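$ run holo --ligand "flavin-adenine dinucleotide" --emit tokens
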Amino acid sequence: MTDNGNNQDVLVLGAGLAGIEASLLLAQTGRKVYLVEKTSYIGGTAIKFEEVFSNMECSTCMVAPKQQDVLSSDNIELLTLSEVEEVQGNFGDFTIKVRKKARYVDMVNCIGCNECFEPCPVSLKNEFEEDLSQRKAIYVPCAGALPNVPSIDTENCLRFKGEDCQACKEACMFEAIDYDQKDEQLELKVGAIVVATGFEPIDPKNTPEYGYGKYNHVYTAFEFERLFATNGPTEGEIVLKNGEKPRSAAIIHCVGREQKGYCSSVCCMYSLKFVHYLKTRIPEIAIYELHSDLCIPGKSYQKFYDETMEMGVELIRAKDIEVVGQDQGEGMRVKYKDANNEECEVSVDMVVLTSAIGPRTDASTLAKVFDIAQDENGFFKEEHPEITSIVTSKKGVYIAGCAQGPKDIQKSISEADAVVGKILSTLT
Ligand SMILES: Cc1cc2nc3c(=O)[nH]c(=O)nc-3n(C[C@H](O)[C@H](O)[C@H](O)COP(=O)(O)OP(=O)(O)OC[C@H]3O[C@@H](n4cnc5c(N)ncnc54)[C@H](O)[C@@H]3O)c2cc1C
Ligand code: SF4
Ligand code: SF4
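-- output --
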């Protein structure tokens, strides 16, 4: 607190790359930051990716140093498993109520050895892995998640359902498991707020014509990211659910774009990234990219596109796309109309859907809590789309990254930097 009552501290909501960038920069200037993240780990969506366009850099190599900096910063108080429940006050003087759920594992005593997982008798689908692998009721979402401290899922843990299980506690040599931990209600005082809660892809069940959920070998983009990830369910091997390698794949662009009414701006680029993924692991695979338009903006993206084309991919301008299962065998036919309105089809072993990016499902709740406006698509609304895209309708509450609208990592990070500039120049 300064003498004039202007609180210099900042609350950052969401520990994806945008939230992490804003927190680290603010912390470097000596500001105290409360980084509030609702999951048990930090890094957001980008930690699901093995590599990122446009230079196919290893995602972990890019994200892990930032995660470590957050964990070691004296100026950042990281609150995982936490959500904001109430916000009162104004720029320079906000009071925020945060609910911090118990992890039931002591952050100091735990060394992250994972010995407690195996004896847990509960086995569940791992949501982080898009249900492609199993997890226990005590777990970390994936190898390398940070903080590398498990949490207990009380909805599924036998002990929290009234049974007398303490298998995980008995397996832990470091006395890190603490069933008596309680949820906490915290009251934080800050001068400014950064909302960086990111995005959610649209549910492919809303586009039944592509056969997701009906045919085994239709995958969402996130599922495909995890199939390629070396810390994922297949340790990076691209195999179908029957264990076989696909010999052909169709990547369908713009899934849900018509429903949403906007271009998600990153799907074309990550579709091209998927060509790199497929050709790296299965060089002989035949790939068809079915697109309505191609969105390849910016100086480095054109080069990436040219390189991808050289890898061997058939680009097809298509509309009225439909995925149809075969009567026999596991393959599928992808039917479409080409640029001349001719009915065409390709037969493939695998289909990958690149879903439109939408706002978080809880965006309207958050908008009420923070008293900020949403746009017609449900993203948090900027004061002016061209000149003040990080400023909201509430003074002192800023937005960065995909919480404001679909964008790539570079732009998400640039917005976070811009937010920090605004805060440092106004909250003085
Ligand atoms: C399949 C796919 C592949 C992609 N590949 C690339 C790529 O190769 N290169 C590239 O540049 N971009 C890529 N992108 C885009 C990239 O994912 C985004 O630009 C980036 O993740 C945006 O970061 P963010 O911090 O805004 O959001 P997120 O990464 O979504 O992080 C938001 C964080 O906020 C947390 N959160 C959400 N709600 C709350 C709440 N109520 N309270 C507290 N915390 C909350 C979340 O748990 C999460 O940790 C891809 C996107 C998709 C869908
Ligand atoms: S809780 Fe104990 S057993 Fe489990 S990861 Fe931590 S130190 Fe290892
Ligand atoms: S108490 Fe039992 S069921 Fe619950 S997390 Fe530990 S081992 Fe699993």
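-- notes --
The mean pLDDT is 94.
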